[in-house]
Amino acid sequence: MTDVTIVGMLMGNLPSIIGIIIGGLCIAVGVHFVPVGGAPAAMAQATGIGTGTVQLAAGSGLTGLLAAGYMYMTLSAAGTPGITEIVLICATGAVGAMIMISVTMLVGNWVYIYGVGVPPASAKKDYDPITGDSQAPYVAAGTVGQGLPTVCFVCGTIGGFLGGLGGSLIYCMLMWVNGDPAISSIFAIGVFLVNAVLPSYNIQGTIEGFHDPKFKRVPKAILACFIASLLYGIIAVTIPGIAMLTGGS
Amino acid sequence: MDPAMGMGLVALMGAAATVAGCSEDLESDIGSQSNPNSQVQLAAQVGYPHRIFNKAISGEPPSNAMYCAVGAGVAMVLMSESVMSASPLIAIAIGAFVAALLNGVFSTTSYLGRNASQTRFNQYVYLDVLRNQILSLMGHAYITTFCIVLISYVMWNQNLIGHPFPFPVIALIWGLCVGAIGSSTGDVHYGAEREFQDFKFGSGLNAADSGNITRFAEAGVRSSMDNAWFCSKFGGPATGIAFGMVVFLDNWRSTAFSGWTAVVVGVVIVLVLVIYNRKVETYARKKYGPFPEYAGDIEA
Amino acid sequence: MSAGGPGGEAVSAETANQVDAKGIGVGLIGIYIAAIAADAGIPYLIFLAGIGAVFATKMGADAVRRVCSYGIGTGVPSIGMLALGMGLISAMFGLAFGAMIGVSYVGPIVGLVVALVIGFVVGTLANKIIKLNIPVMERCLMEIAGAGVLVMTGLSVMIAGSMDFVVISEKVIVTGYIAPVFILGALGILHPFNASLGPDETQDRTLVHAYSVGAIAMVIAGVCSIAVIDPIAGIISTVVGLAIWYVTFMGFVKLVKRDAGAGYVGTGLLPPGAM
User: Fold this and answer.
1) For the segment A93-110, what is each residue's pLDDT rounded down to a tens digit?
2) What is the rounded CA–CA span in Å between residue C114 and residue C92?
3) Which residue from A173, C54, C212, C268 has the fewest beta carbons nearer than 10 Å?
């Protein structure tokens, strides 16, 4: 077990570090796409999903992680997955997260429309950038919109896609290093949470998607998450799996 | 595993998930957890003391993740050969019971703590509110945890689906997911409608009315117990459908298809949802029309 | 704790340095005694690692209390998740580092140092790049990450009965007991302040509450350790945890009575003037 050294692991796992950084950046950007209205949205007082950024991004991204983990196991039966397999695994994870977030947004819209009796609308733009529908007349007095108009819905699926992609990529990279699904999954959750919380401080509560003025703050989150992911990548790839420490037995 | 068995398991998981989603939402409605909690918290500060349960266990996703992870952990201890090799159903039931006890402890401390921190606003700590509602909260938490730990067990068991993640980690992820869904869907029905039921139907909460929650019931002072009655008409089942759909669709596509086909099927599902959402949106815009108070110059 | 009894007036607050010193000191001492005793063949003292984790929880809760009084925009829970995300990776790195150089006892200290560095970096990123501009951010994130490491290490050592990374990965991570430890640790750090949010929040009440949530984490970790190491040692940990929980929970209720004053009632309609 003494041949496992930190420098050796760092040099040998450079692709994994890069993968973890890319995954972290995907999560950071993805969080900005998720249309969250925070607490006001739960009172139909703001456009977006009525919950917190981190919670929703983590909920969708980790659902994707479950699908990706299963796919990795299926594919690794034929040997250690290469780049082609990794692409498939990440696509699976990304689609899993997209399904979770679109179902959530759709049922959320049901509640806004049938339960609260409001049409989805946003006060940030006069017209929906995708469908061209007018927004302002449908915004209730004293609120800044409610529900999820099409533009927010599409942004949400993009956010889910990026979140699931990032989470799965981090998982695959960790599997390359330590080959243990248990260690990799729990670490992927840890790295995911850090990369989701930092952008949520950048957003400060609410965001609607790429049409929101706050979306211009993305570069700051990318820089912050780049540094944080670099640090995490370096630390995470130096943690070996059990098989390496016990001599592969 | 033969395909019929696989589809049967996916259907079972979907059904269990529907129950879990519904009870999760009702639990958070009775306790005023998650985002609608901000109005309950605000009410006393703007001069409307109340007898509504005020519980904030760190937002729904982490708290549900905690119940499910603890339930799965305890179930795993009981199932391990070195302890008693209990049968999975009994082990999951006991695990869910322990999780429900934790729910009781955390709910108690948050009700007491939050109300005691608002003494200067004349907000009382009512022990009968606590005693009446804690069992209902624990009961709903039990159902949620039981169903989710069951789903996780089916996913984890090597003879069934055989997911590589450890059992409690799967339960943690599904708990996080059900909490995220519950706070995004069903809670809106509680926050936007039930909490402000004496306002006119058909609009969101005007910011000027923030904190003016409905504190009086049909007769007397409203307690949170009635929220389950109201929200079980729509918000709870809607949450159940959402979580059931997530669990079912996601597992169905990876059980019935493999490789890139599963990915393509998933993308098709998402596209169908986007189009259907657009239909619902146009329906609502046509049906409700623009708000009559609107005075701007943009055409509806 | 300088917790006053019923009717105690303005309670002298515990300063951040005192809380940190106790958290790190008791945390590390507890973890080391437990691990050394377990290695020497006496697993019955592993509950000390849990007590270390309880004090570390209190240190994290106090840091959350200070940083969240600035209003961080996304609610209290996110910072707890951040804490344990940072704590988990640092803790495992520390233990793995110990295994790699063959001296497993350096694990918790290395983990703590790494966590302090990560906490400082993340705090600086939040303040300088994201421009949150919260003056205590760096320090509080260092404390929160450090508390996360000590909680994770303490509870893991308690379950596995060893400080060896191989044993911990086999018995805590692969079995999945890390999941309840992870999330209960996070709730222990964020729940005490979140549950006492309000203008009349008092430090001693929040910190007693932190002990009690930490004790719950200790109880659950004790239950998990029954299946992993010696059952008697696991039962001892569970019972000690339950005892700490009972004492601190009753202490919390007492402080609620003190803070709520006349508002602590058995039943009743709305207060005078509100009907």
Assistant:
1) 999 999 999 999 999 999
2) 10
3) C268
B188/B155 same-domain check:
yes
**A70–B254 CB contact, under 8 Å:** yes
Neighbouring C-beta atoms of residue C243, cutoff 10 Å: 12
Q: Cα-flanking dihedrals φ and ψ of residue A207, to 5°?
A: -155, 155
Structural domain count, chain C: 1
How many domains is chain A built from?
A: 1
Q: Over 80: is that where the pLDDT of C25 sits?
A: yes
Tell me C76's DSSP state. Answer: S
Q: Would the CB atoms of C177 and B56 count as touching at under 8 Å?
A: no
Which DSSP category does C14 fall into?
P
Question: Cα(A232)–Cα(A45) distance, rounded to whole angstroms?
Answer: 38
Is a pLDDT exceeding 90 seen at residue C255? Answer: yes
Query: Any residues with CB less than 8 A from the CB of C79 and at least 6 apart, and which?
Result: A197, C64, C67, C68, C72, C144, C190
B299 within domain boundaries: no
Residue A246 in any domain: the answer is no
Is C275 contained in some domain? no
Residue B85 forms contact with C (CB below 8 Å): no
Instruction: Name which of A41, A65, A102 is nearest B273 (Cβ-Cβ).
Output: A102
Question: Is the Cβ–Cβ distance between C56 and C170 less than 8 Å?
Answer: no
B176 and A100 Cβ atoms separated by less than 8 Å: no
Split at pLDDT 50, 70, 90, the class of B100 is very high
Whether residue C10 is predicted with pLDDT greater than 60 in this model: the reply is no
Q: What is the pLDDT of residues B217-251, one digit of tens each?
A: 888 888 888 888 899 999 999 999 999 999 999 88
Number of Cβ within a 10 Å radius of residue B283 = 12
- Report CB contact under 8 Å: C88, A232: no
Residue among C178, C186, C199 minimizing CB distance to B120:
C199
Which of A17-21, A122-126, A204-208 has the largest mean confidence?
A: A17-21
B227 half-sphere exposure, CB direction, 13 A CA radius: 37
Q: Would you say residue C200 has pLDDT above 90?
A: no
CB atoms B126 and C179 under 8 Å: no
Chain A residues close to C71, C-beta within 8 Å? none
Establish if B277 touches chain C: CB-CB under 8 angstroms: no
Q: Report residue C239 as tokens.
A: 């019972």
How many residue contacts between A and B have a Cβ separation below 8 Å?
296
Q: Quick check: helix, strand or coil at residue C265?
A: strand
N residues, chain A: 249
Search chain A and give the residue with CA nearest B269. Answer: A99
Which contiguous run of DSSP H or E holds residue B141?
A: helix B127-156
Q: What is the extent of the structural domain holding B171? A: 3-244
- B154 pLDDT band (50/70/90 cuts)? very high
Sign of CA dihedral B263, B266, B272, B274: negative
CB B211 within 8 A of CB B42: yes
The reported pLDDT for the residue numbered A249 is: 38
- Mutation to test the A interface, candidates B184, B194, B255, most A Cβ within 10 Å: B184
What pLDDT digit, counting tens, does each position of A167-191 carry?
Answer: 999 999 988 888 888 888 988 888 8
Task: Check whether B85 has a pLDDT greater than 60.
Answer: yes
pLDDT, tens only, C102-133: 777 888 899 999 999 999 998 888 888 888 77
B285 in the same domain as B173: no
For C77, the domain range is 16-256
